[in-house]
Amino acid sequence: METLSYILISVFAVSALSLVGVTTLVLGKATIRSVLLWLVAFASGSLLGGAFLHLIPESLDASSSDSVSLLVIGGIVFFFFLEKIIHWRHCHKEACDVHAFTYLSLVGDSVHNFIDGLIIAASYLTSIPLGVATTFAVVAHEVPQELGDFGVLVYGGFSLRKALVFNFLSALTAVVGALVGYYSSGIVSGIEFMLLPFAAGGFIYIASSDLIPELHKEKELRKSLPIMVLFLAGIAFMWVMRAVIGG
């Protein structure tokens, strides 16, 4: 029961991040844009650190290296197809129905958040420290993602209030994913040890395919230096968490 409490607190905290879009009203879009790359840089490092310093080592302690490798690759492939088929963000035709595109984005976000919930639950089922570390990695990449999601909904014609509500409802699927992960562990023995390397593959894909390419868009060395520092800071943060809390 204690583990379930940790899981629910974590996924509700992650879901609450969907309301971060309201900061654009307080700080203004220009200020948000100026710090967004910094957030993305830290998130990239955190995801890679979470995958290589927490999830994969924990998986190798419980499973063979061959099965862990295959599941990591499976996670990368799955997130590739998820982004291509469900989580498709961009309209490639001149005559584009923006509203349909916006609802498709909500569906994709819901699936993504559901998987985040599964990952958090699997991590806590393995150990409390690993669950905490994984939650921090998810939080790190959720902040810039939720800012982007909010912008997509507003661009798609939603009012600010409606965008916040729908974004929050989409985020709550993380709670559903967490409950499914927690209770399915009693049905499928050792499911968490299959989900951990799978999640690591997802973290690697998100960092390498979605986030790091955004960092390369900044060409000026002066502006790139803090980005590189924050990228390394994200990795270092996950390493410190491993040293302090274990997992």
Q: Can you characterise this structure?
A:
The protein has 247 residues and is an all-alpha fold. The protein has one domain. The chain is 84% helix and 0% strand. The protein has helices at residues 2-16, 23-27, 29-62, 65-86, 98-126, 128-155, 160-171, 173-184, 191-215, 221-245. The two termini are 20 Å apart.
Q: What's the rounded overall pLDDT mean?
A: 82
Number of strands: 0
Structural domain count: 1
**Fraction in beta strands:** under 5%
How far the N terminus sits from the C terminus, by CA atoms, comes to 20 Å
Stretches where pLDDT is under 50 for at least 5 consecutive residues are 88-99
Radius of gyration: 18 Å
Q: What class, by secondary structure content?
A: mainly alpha
What gross morphology would you assign?
globular
Short description:
84% of the residues lie in helices and 0% in strands. By secondary structure, it is an all-alpha fold. Helix 3 packs across helix 10 (221-245) and helix 5 runs antiparallel to helix 6 (128-155).
